[in-house]
Amino acid sequence: MLRLLGRANSINVRKVLWTCHEIGLDYQREDWGRGFRPVTDPDFLALNPFAQIPALVDGDTALSESNTICRYLAAKHGRHDLLPQEAAQRAQVEKWMDWQLSELNGSWMYAFHALSRNSPDHQDPARIAESVAAWKKQMAVLESQLGERWILGETFTLADIVLGVSVQRWLLTPFDKPALPKAEAYFERLRQRPAYRAHGGEGVA
């Protein structure tokens, strides 16, 4: 059975839980990370030297990085709807997954820690404003690219899973936001999926 190491309310763990549910995989989840066993523990570092949750153990295979884990699971179990085999189609999915990790996540990091977690290390008003402005800019990109179903049209993919948890974080972080009707409608469609209801809404941590 798969072992998934990481607390259930982590945004990156939720991506993997959601993916497992969509595929129909059994797994054993173990609490690691903030509030639980520390990721600096040698047992964890032996599986994930980056000291970040989640980590996945599948037989002799140990993996880190949430988007990589999601791709691995979809590919291993032949879920070509979630991650296409054809190179150009797969690249379109991975493009959005990479953008979510780099541009979108990078934009909100400071503002999220300041406004949702009330971190004492993230209370510089100028940096909060800069992060909020960058976050709004990236969400405007997403808004401009959304259609009436999923990010790549009629087929739900891994890109929608990773974008979905990020849109949830946008909606739940308290600050003055512009209206993004496409993103809000997109999120409502995501919320109807049983796998989202099981794992997508654990929080904004």
Automatic annotation (TrEMBL):
Gene3D superfamilies: 1.20.1050.10, Glutaredoxin. InterPro entries: Glutathione-S-Trfase_C-like, Glutathione-S-Trfase_C_sf, Glutathione_S-Trfase, Glutathione_S-Trfase_N, Thioredoxin-like_sf. Keywords: Transferase. The keyword Transferase applies. Residues 86-205 form the GST C-terminal domain. Belongs to the GST superfamily. This is Glutathione S-transferase.
